Here is the input.
Amino acid sequence: MAKKAEAGKSGSNGGGEVSLRALVIHGANLNLLGEREPEIYGRVRLEDVDRELIELGRELGMAVVAFQSNSEGEIVERIHASRTERTDIILLNPGSYTHTSVAIRDALLAVKIPVIEIHLSNVYRREPFRHYSTIADIAAGRIMGFGVDSYSLALRAVRGVLKSARSDRH
Ligand code: DQA
Here is the structure.
């Protein structure tokens, strides 16, 4: 079952202007954050991560929409849906699909929206099969190893990432 969370309908940041819209996608097994292997992923639950990201987004003048699914197909569909709504950047932790999913890579290439790859753990300190990512070379940036702070660090970096993505195109 896919789950979504989003900032107040208008995407308002308490009276301030929303200048950017960020879509946060959490992949497989991340719905169990807080109870799943807490020694690796910590004890904070996903709904608390999303609530804090939405709040941080308000402070930064960004509308944050969060989505989680255990299904590769639903993640692909959610990426496609970002074509019909304004999405400036995708913050994506694909979970284990990071290491296997050509479909998610192709969806990101199809919609042409900049993506930041996020991981709670430093995958390079773990099993070799986690060292390969199907999206590493198409991501504008990658943040990993900071636990749930990986997401907030990524959100804080969005403006800079978009600026350099734009100047790359010119
Ligand atoms: C993860 C790392 C992946 O290897 C793993 O399969 C996950 C979580 C991370 O956030 O550290 O599910 O993406």
